[in-house]
Amino acid sequence: MTSEQVADSPAKNPGSAGQDGSGREASEGYQRGLGNRQIQMIAIGGAIGTGLFLGAGKAISKAGPSLILAYAIAGLVIFCIMRALGELLMYRPVSGSFSDYAREFLGPFWGYATGWTYWLFWVVTGITEVTAAATYVQYWNHGIPQWVSALAFTVVLYLVNLISVKLFGELEFWFSMVKVTAIIGMILIGIGVITLGFSDAGDTASFANLWSHRGFVPNGIGSTLMTLQIVMFAFLAVELVGVTAGEAKDPKKTLPKAINTVPWRIAVFYIGALVIILSVVPWTEFVPGKSPFVEAFAKIGLPAGAGIVNFVVLTAALSSCNSGMYSTGRMLRDLALNGQGPKFFAALSKRGLPLRGTTFSAALMLVGVWINYQWPGQAFTYVVSFATISGMWAWIMILVAHLRYRRRADRGELPRSSFPAPGAPWTSLFALAFIGLVIVLMGIDEDARISLYCAPLWAAIVWVSYLVLKKRNPLAFARRDYTVPEVEKAA
C-alpha cells in the first residue's frame, strides 16, 4: 500500500487486511511483521528499564529490603492492568490500542486525550533516554561530545524504524536479550556467592542480610510506601505490547502468551534480582544515584561489573528510545484516521509504516536533545517529570475502558473476549485504587510533586485543542456505534 493509497479511515478500505469481528480492520494496513519471538521479548524488555538498573539504588536507601514487597505488590497491579488490556485486545486487536478503547468506551474526547498524552509521553521519554544514552557513552570515551552521540543514536534508531517493523522487532529482541542475560547472570553469580562462599563477598553474603540490619522494614512502612512511585516508574512501557496488536503475525496467540509472562518476568527480573543483590550486599551499603548492580559486582570483586552495567543501561536507554519512535508513529496515525489529528499522519509508506508520524516525532526528539544541550538544568527536569504521570494516565484509561467493556459484555451488548481477565472487574478496581494511592504519594513527595504540576497544564492544552477541533470537525468527535460493522454502515 502506498502513501497515496492509504484510506482516511479503516472503514473506507474494508476487507483488505482482515477484520476483527467488529467490522474494523485488525491490521489497518500495517504489515504483520512481528513474530512470537519478537513480541515475547518486546514484552520482557518493556518491563526492564533504567528504573531497575539505576533507580533501584535510591529506592533501596529509602525502604531497605522491604522494597522487595513494594515490587511484588506493584507487580500484581501491573499484571491486573495487562490482563485488562489483554481482554480488550482479544475483543478488538488494533494498533491504537488503549487510545482506541478509550474512544469507544469513554467517548471521543478521552480517546483524543489518551492518544496525544501517550504520544507526548514517548516523545519526552525518547528525549531523556537518547540523552541518557549519550552520557553513558562518555563512560568509555569522554572525548565524544554528548550531542554527537545523541544525534547518532537518534538517526540510527530512526533509520531502523524507517526500514521495516520486522527490523524494529529484531532490534528490540536483542536489546531485551542483553538486559535479560545481565540480570540472569547477576542472579546466578549471586546464588553461587551465597551458597558456595566464593569471591570477596563470600564471607558476608547471606539471605540473613534481608532482615538482620534493623529488620525487613527498617525505616517503617511509610518509607516503603513512598517508594511506590519509583517502583511504578520502573514498570512504565510494559503496556507497549498493546500497540503491537496491529502488526503481530498472530495476535490472538502471541499477545496472550506475552501478557501471561508478566508474573514470572516480575518474579525473576525484579524480585529475584533484588533478593540476590540485597543478600550479597547489605542494604545499608547502597546509596542513591549509584546502580545497585554496580555495587553488587564491585562487592563480589568483579571490577568489570561497572562497565557491564553501563553497557546494559545503554541498551536499556536505546531500547526505550526505539520503542518511542515505534509507538509515536502509530499513535499519530490512529489519531489521524479518527479525524483527531492532522490527516497528513494517516499515510503509510510502501512498506506499511507510518513514516510521517515517526519522522515528526524523531524530529521533536532531536529538538529535545538540543534543548538538553543548551539548558540541562531545572527547566528540562520539569518537562521530563511529566513522563511518570502521563504513563500512568494510559494505565488508568486501560482499566476504565476495561470496566466499561466488561459491563457491556456481561449485559450481552458486546461479544465476550477470548482472554478474560481473572477476577474482573474487582482486579481492575483494585489496580485503579492503587494508582490513585501512588498519585497521592507523589503529591506528598517533594521530589515527585513536580509531575503533578505539569498535568493540569497539559490537560488545559488538550481541552482547549479539543474544543477548537470539535468546532471545526464535529463528525470526528461524534460517538460511534462500534457494535455495527463499518461495512454495513457504508452500505
Please tag this protein with its features.
single chain, 491 residues, mainly alpha, Amino acid/polyamine transporter I, 20 helices, 65% helix, 0% strand
Describe the structure.
Pfam families: AA_permease. The chain is mainly α and 491 residues long. The protein has a single domain (10-372, 387-441), classed as Amino acid/polyamine transporter I. It has helices at residues 36-46, 50-53, 56-63, 67-91, 97-105, 108-137, 146-163, 165-196, 221-225, 228-234, 251-260, 262-280, 292-300, 305-337, 355-374, 378-384, 386-410, 426-444, 450-472, 486-490. Mean pLDDT is 82; it is low at 1-27 and 485-491.
Question: How much strand?
Answer: under 5%
Largest sheet, in brief, is: none
Percent of residues in helices comes to 55-70%
CATH architecture: Up-down Bundle
What's the CATH class, please?
Mainly Alpha
Number of domains: 1
What is the fourth-level CATH superfamily?
Amino acid/polyamine transporter I
Q: What do we call the CATH topology?
A: Amino acid/polyamine transporter I
Radius of gyration: 23 Å
In whole angstroms, the N-to-C terminal distance is 24 Å
Number of DSSP strand runs:
0
Secondary-structure element sequence? HHHHHHHHHHHHHHHHHHHH
Low-confidence parts lasting 5 or more residues at pLDDT below 50?
1-27, 485-491
